């Protein structure tokens, strides 16, 4: 029984590592949105984290987001620790409501509700964090002058609409993926639970 339990944990760890690797690859495939600052780019790296969160647990999804960002930090030469932390927080805010509602209610409606809540949470909380912490940290690191007017303009004209649009785009991709993989996700979830 103990060997079987260790084997199950090893399989889970391998699956999470594979999903984190896929997430990292998707992180590098990104594109800017028109009319928004070009440094804000949409990617689909949260999709593997969502799958992990639905199969295993909300914490597993957060772990995939963490591993993706840790791998990116190493791969990019550790040039942007602030962006890595911000991406981790944004990804966590996005996937936790989806995972929580799915594990509680199990269904397409719960996933869609979670995606709506996750998008709103990501947009609002990241706007507040950008205003209070992230933008000032970038200003300090780069030696920029940053006053309240610049911070408000950056949040209202960039961060807030970007996170809403990104959440909507990723959600529009994830819903059909979830519907297609729902039976497989549920099967894997039952295998993990047993």
What features would you highlight for this structure?
6 helices; mainly alpha; 83% helix; Arp2/3 complex 21 kDa subunit ARPC3; 194 residues; 2% strand
Summarize the structure in words.
With 194 residues, the protein is mainly alpha-helical. The protein has one domain (2-24, 43-188): Arp2/3 complex 21 kDa subunit ARPC3, CATH 1.10.1760.20. 83% of the residues lie in helices and 2% in strands. The chain is built from six helices and two strands. A two-stranded antiparallel ribbon has the order 1-2. Strand 1 (31-32) and strand 2 (41-42) form a beta hairpin. The chain is globular, with a radius of gyration of 18 Å.
Percentage of helical residues?
over 70%
**Quaternary structure state of the chains depicted:** single chain
Helix and strand pattern: HEEHHHHH
CATH topology: Arp2/3 complex 21 kDa subunit ARPC3
- Based on the coordinates given, report the CATH architecture: Orthogonal Bundle
Mean model confidence by pLDDT: 91
Cα shape: globular
What is the helix tally? 6
How many β-strand stretches? Answer: 2
What strand line-up does the widest sheet have? 1-2
Amino- and carboxy-terminal Cα gap: 12 Å
Low-confidence stretches: none
* Gyration radius, in Å: 18 Å
Q: How is this fold's topology laid out?
A:
Blueprint: H1 2-28, E1 31-32, E2 41-42, H2 46-55, H3 58-75, H4 81-105, H5 108-142, H6 148-193
Antiparallel strand pairs: 1-2
Helix pairs in contact: 1-2, 1-3, 2-3, 2-4, 2-6, 3-4, 4-5, 5-6
